[in-house]
Structures are given as structure tokens and as C-alpha cells.
Amino acid sequence: MCTAIKETDISDTAAATTTIRSVDGRNVPAVGTWAIDPTHTQAEFVARHLVVNKVRGGFSDVSGSIVVAEDPKDSSVEVTIGTASISSGTQDRDNHVKSPDFLDVEQFPEMRFLSTSVEPSGSAWRLTGNLTIKDVTKPVTLDFEFLGVSADPWGNQKAAFSASTEIERGEWNLTWNVPLDGGGVLVSKSVKLEIEAQASIAE
Predict the structure, then answer these.
(1) Could you tell me the sign of the dihedral formed by the alpha carbons of 108, 112, 116, 121, in that order?
(2) Are 59 and 43 in contact (CB under 8 A)?
(3) β-pairing, 157-168 with 42-49?
(4) What tens digit of pLDDT does each residue of 98-155 get?
(5) Contacts of residue 158, Cβ cutoff 8 Å, sequence gap at least 6
(6) What's the confidence (pLDDT) of residue 153?
(7) Which residue(s) pair with 63 in the sheet?
(8) Helix, strand or coil for residue 37?
(9) What CA–CA distance (Å, rounded) separates 112 from 130?
(10) Is residue 158 within 8 Å of 13, Cβ to Cβ?
């Protein structure tokens, strides 16, 4: 079956080229390589502490690219995260997560995600790829959404993307924990990952 593709101009911007298309009823970015803007992108995580409460943190050092193909299903995503850029609001906790008990940032300064497939899922997408943490690479699938394109105050077109998934950290040898007297463990085995990314067409 042929994929229906329709170009849609963005009004009220200084964009010289079309930056959004409609493919099978879904808005998608223009064909090309979109470079992730590290200053406007955040990779965050949520884990349970003491069973009941949530601990949130994030990584500020995020880079990569989103290569949008004519057929969006042929697109690809590559993301690199600097592990030492973690911030959870508590220095002692950050130092512990940076240690060999968890990320071992001195030996493994980066986490990486390389996509292997993109498939439509409702009005959004499912993005499957290989996630490397420390020296372990495992497949993961993220819920992936294109949020649109807006012009910044200088007329540059910026695309926004959102992605999320949940992983079992033990699969990446992040197994440190402490059992609790009342049952359960200090840090949850499941961790939710969320990425909010901004990108622009690479020159």
C-alpha cells in the first residue's frame, strides 16, 4: 500500500522550507537530519525509594540526532547521555549513583541508545532500539511522540519530541540494593525513563 504524504506549510513563521508533513494522517517532521539541542533537552528518570515515594533525577548532557526519512518508518534515532551529568537534587545520592555501585561514570562516561525500528502506534510511534548502560546492551521500546515545530525568537525552526519507557535496571547490572526490615528493597528494580528533546535541522 502506498504511503500518503502531503506537505503542509507552517504559517506565521519565517521558515523558507516546509518543516512539517502529513503522512497517513500523522504530522511528522520534514525529511532530513534533526540535531538534538543539548541546551533544551533533558533525559529524566523516576525510581521508587523506600517502596512508596518517588525519586526523580535527570541528565543534562544529552546529544544525538533524529534522521527523518521520506517514509517515517525508515527513520532512525541516536542519543548519547553523559553519565556524570546526573542531578537528583542531593549531592550524596548523585555521588552514589556515579559510583561503581551504579553507573561507574569514570569507567563508563556515556549511555547510548541506537534505534532499530520505528512503528506507528495510535497517533504516536513506538521506537525500538538498543540501550547501552555500562558494558551491557539490551533492546528497549519507547513510546515516541512528535510534538510539533515552533520558531524561536530568532526565526529558527525547533522540533519537539517526547519519549518514555520503563526498564528493569538489573538487566544492565545495576543491581545494588538494601533489603528493608518490613519487606521490599530500598531502591525499586523498575526505573522509568523520560526524554524531552528539542532539535533543529542540521546544517
Answers:
(1) positive
(2) yes
(3) unpaired
(4) 999 889 999 999 999 999 999 999 889 999 999 999 999 999 999 999 999 988 888 8
(5) 37, 40, 149, 150, 151, 152, 198, 199, 200
(6) 82
(7) 80
(8) coil
(9) 8
(10) no
What is the tens place of the pLDDT at every residue in 33-53? 999 999 999 999 888 654 456
Rounded to whole angstroms, the Cα distance separating 23 from 120 reads: 11
Write the pLDDT tens digit of every residue in 86-113: 998 889 889 989 999 889 999 999 999 9
Residue 69 is placed in which grid cell? 526519512
Distance CA 149, CA 66 (A): 14
Global model pTM greater than 0.90: no
Residue 71: exposure state from Cβ atoms within 10 A (0-12, 13-18, ≥19): middle
DSSP track, 90-138: -HHHHHHHHSTTTT-TTT--EEEEEEEEEEEETTEEEEEEEEEETTEEE
CB 43 within 8 A of CB 63: no
Domain 17-174+185-201 -> CATH class: mainly beta
User: Residue 155 has what DSSP assignment?
Assistant: S
Name the residue with higher pLDDT: 16 or 20: 20
Of the candidates 130, 125, 162, the one whose C-alpha atom is nearest the C-alpha of residue 40 is 162
